[in-house]
Write a structure and sequence with these properties.
Blueprint lengths: L3 H11 L7 H25 L4 H17 L13 H12 L4 H9 L2 H5 L3 H8 L1 H14 L10 H18 L2 H15 L6 H21 L3 H15 L1 H13 L1 H21 L4 E7 L2 H13 L11 E7 L2 H14 L1 E2 L5 E2 L12 E7 L3 E9 H9 L6 H4 L7 H4 L1 H12 L2 H12 L3 E5 L5 E5 L4 H8 L1 H5 L1 E6 L2 E3 L11 E5 L21 H12 L3 H19 L6 H7 L5 H10 L4 H8 L23 E3 L7 E3 L11 E5 L5 E5 L3 H4 L7 E2 L1 E3 L6 E10 L4 H11 L3 E10 L2 E10 L2 H12 L4 E7 L9
Parallel strand pairs: 2-6, 13-15
Antiparallel strand pairs: 1-2, 3-5, 4-5, 5-6, 7-8, 9-10, 9-11, 12-17, 14-15, 14-16, 18-20, 18-21, 19-20
Length: 753
């Protein structure tokens, strides 16, 4: 069915008055552009397709031209331009004639009312199947309501993966379709532009990356970034443009030097500079800002790429470069010997050019370069060579594995698995037998064990990395050799492995397998375990829930037993408990020998919405930014800020002096008193201090008392917020010999006179 604008154009033009109608004048001009694009697609296809295959593309173009006659897009351009641009992108990837024909026809059934049976009769079942698959993917709605967005996304990702498993070319067409839609996004309303750009950045760009199609991936990222963060986009674009002349002079000198040195060793090579795309620079700027550095500190806004004929020439060129300039050993990656999961191969090295400028250099063969740009799409080049590639199934084994996983996991777990296990950077490690395994960056030996086999994960008791015993939350690095130590008897996982603050597992796949193990345990055991965990966490944080049933409802469970069982099998983590339960009213303070708290600035406190008033944090309860707070007007010290459950507030009789206060923009740290009980042993204080330092928390004071081999440590930590506190307490709790960690309050009145 034609849109209203399409009908107007078609009707006016059919009446012979199109030469004077503004819409038709624009339409005629745009049709001339479309004809140029039609010539372009044929010219590009001629370069690699034989004449008999080219005839299929030409026939598909003529059919699409007649079907879309008179239709226009919201931008005013003829609708035919969209399938043409989609096909041009795929021709740049040098895909087969069947894919190009399907791309030209992919909107015909839906927008022109022509049945698939007619397409099948004219172009064959293979083209018809690709058109049908692309139409179904186009009908997937990613922009669901806030309540069911995650589940909707997960289900649609399932459908996309199934379509990919049947024929990857469907997704190639969809990616090219999305690329042209992003290039013409300006014709849509602002809110819709942002929504489409967001799903492009979350779904389509990572998918292009995972398929190794760099040429599409970087364009999708830059276009999405342009609409999501227009100010940042144009700011970086201007900064990069101001350095253009300087950059061109730099690269000219550099490439000349490299060519001369490579010629001396008889290495035939093509040397060129490659500017980094804007979204990549934006991410680097963010990383530099976190380190206190600015844009001027970024020296590697471009990389140098060297293309050679053979793999031995790659390593010879590397030797020449390292002879010329000093390399950074930690910045060297051999992706030729250890290809990425998406088949990417190259040598990456960073050198100190002329002793001052860090410079990234990539070395690869021409075949590797083609694969880097086109990814798995390269396997359809030249007469559907993918069908003759006996290793092709191995190269998309990750996709087959996802299809298996999606049948086991729930919708949200599957979505999380995709985002954490597939659509992010990876590390490549070895089994003791030399097999390469790909894992997401930040993965641990436990993730490795669960990827090998679920039972190996359940029985894991330790791991050797490169022959050295490492903790189970050790972050694996490229080229590590991982040897899992397992118990012979049935052991089962530890519930601590599910605590995100302890960092035992990174992948959703491993986390889901651990949760499944605990779910299979007796419900009674899970409930009892959940009650124990809940009791421990509440005591540790010094908070009390209103009642059990209300606590269950707070986490969307009908009964407390269901809630406790979820806590017991790890469906609800201690971190989640702390974040939701911590702001509740406080119990009376525990009288304990605690060190005096350090006074902290309180400029972020707002009294009745007004800041910069004289306030101070009460030393009796030490409120944190996540706590509910109330102010007390003292006679001489301004406003004293307390937690709402503080015993000194609840017992006061002069209620008129209480005043509403709130947290504003908080950048300060706040003192929190903690009691740590442990078996006394040599090195205990050292281990506690190390754990605190890892979380970048300062110890304001510390004291100890002990009896009967039990040591009590009283410490004051300077904390930013409740999330940091619960993470720190979890880490301390995991130290060998620790019995309990509890937040405490000082037993003195600080309300003022």
């Amino acid at each position: 069915m034609l849109r209203p604008t399409q009908k107007i154009v078609k009707n006016v033009c059919s009446q012979g008055s199109h030469l004077h109608h503004p819409l038709c004048l624009h339409y005629d001009t745009s049709m001339a552009v479309a004809e140029i694009n039609a010539s372009l697609i044929i010219e590009k296809a001629k370069r690699y397709l034989p004449p008999e295959k080219l005839a299929l593309v030409e026939a598909a173009y003529q059919f699409a031209l007649n079907a879309h006659q008179g239709q226009v897009r919201k931008s005013g351009a003829p609708y035919l331009d969209h399938p043409l641009q989609t096909a041009i992108t795929l021709a740049n990837l040098q895909l087969d004639a069947t894919t190009l024909a399907a791309a030209l026809l992919h909107d015909v059934p839906e927008d022109c009312g022509i049945p698939l049976t007619e397409i099948e009769a004219k172009f064959g079942p293979e083209v018809s199947k690709l058109v049908d698959g692309t139409t179904k993917l186009s009908n997937l709605s990613w922009r669901a309501s806030a309540t069911d967005k995650r589940e909707s996304q997960a289900e649609n990702l399932r459908k996309m993966l199934i379509a990919m498993a049947e024929d990857l070319r469907v997704v190639f067409i969809k990616l090219a379709d999305r690329l042209h839609n992003m290039a013409t996004l300006g014709a849509l309303p602002p809110e819709k532009r942002r929504s489409i750009a967001q799903e492009t950045l979350e779904i389509y760009a990572p998918l292009a990356h995972r398929l190794g199609i760099w040429e599409v991936k970087w364009q999708l990222e830059d276009l999405a970034f342009r609409y999501l963060e227009p100010r940042q986009y144009h700011k970086i674009a201007r900064l990069v443009a101001t350095r253009r002349t300087q950059r061109e002079d730099f690269i000219t000198t550099l490439t000349q030097t490299l060519r001369q040195e490579l010629d001396k060793t008889d290495i035939k090579a093509e040397v060129a500079g490659r500017p980094k795309h804007i979204y990549s620079i934006y991410n680097k700027v963010k990383r530099y800002a976190a380190q206190g550095r600015d844009f001027d500190d970024i020296h590697d806004l471009l990389a140098v790429r060297i293309l050679v004929d053979t793999i031995p020439d790659c390593y010879k060129a590397l030797g020449v470069i390292h002879t010329l300039w000093h390399p950074f050993p930690e910045e060297f990656n051999d992706f030729i010997a250890n290809p990425k999961e998406n088949e990417y191969q190259s040598l990456h090295t960073t050198v100190l050019y002329q002793g001052t400028t860090p410079l990234e250099i990539q070395i690869r063969t021409y075949d590797m370069h083609r694969l880097a740009d086109y990814g798995v799409a390269a396997h359809w080049r030249y007469k559907e060579s993918a069908r003759k590639d006996t290793h092709f199934e191995d190269k998309i084994a990750w996709l087959r594995q996802l299809i298996d996983w999606q049948s086991e996991l729930g919708s949200e777990e599957f979505l999380e698995s995709l985002k954490t296990d597939v659509f992010i950077d990876q590390v490549f490690v070895y089994t003791p037998k030399g097999e390469i395994k790909a894992l997401p960056k930040g993965a641990t030996p436990l993730d490795f064990a669960y990827q090998i086999h679920t039972e190996l994960g359940h029985r894991c008791i330790g791991a050797k990395v490169n022959g050295k015993l490492e903790p189970l939350n050790y972050k694996l690095k490229n080229s590590n050799v991982v040897d899992i130590r397992q118990t012979k008897r049935a052991k089962g996982p530890s519930l601590d492995w599910l605590n995100p603050d302890l960092g035992y597992v990174k992948t959703s796949h491993a986390r889901e397998k651990i949760q499944q193990w605990f779910k299979k345990q007796e419900r009674t055991q899970n409930i009892e375990r959940g009650k124990q965990i809940l009791d421990r966490e509440l005591k540790r944080l010094g908070v009390t829930p209103p009642n059990f049933e209300e606590t269950a409802h707070l986490f969307n469970y009908e009964s407390f037993d269901d809630f406790a069982a979820a806590v017991g099998y790890g469906g609800i983590t201690p971190h989640q408990l702390a974040l939701k339960l911590a702001p509740e009213p406080e119990p009376p303070p525990i009288i304990a020998k605690a060190a005096p708290a350090k006074k902290m600035p309180t400029s972020a406190i707002q009294v009745l919405g007004v800041g910069n008033l004289l306030t101070h944090l009460a030393a009796c309860c030490h409120p944190l930014p996540d706590n509910d707070i109330i102010g007390y007007i003292t006679r001489s010290q301004g406003i004293s800020v307390h937690r709402k459950g503080c015993i000194n507030v609840t017992n006061i009789t002069d209620k008129e002096r209480l005043i509403e206060v709130s947290w504003g923009e908080v950048q300060e740290v706040y003192p929190v008193n903690v009691q740590i009980d442990s078996w006394d042993r040599v090195g205990l204080i050292r281990d506690i201090a190390a754990a605190v330092a890892e979380e970048k928390v300062n110890i304001a004071s510390m004291s100890t008392t002990g009896h009967d081999d039990i040591l009590s440590v009283f410490a004051t930590f300077e904390i930013k917020n409740m999330a940091q506190l619960t993470k720190l307490l979890s880490k301390i709790q995991s130290i060998n010999g620790i019995l309990s960690t509890t937040r405490i309050s000082q037993a003195k009145d600080s309300l003022g006179s």
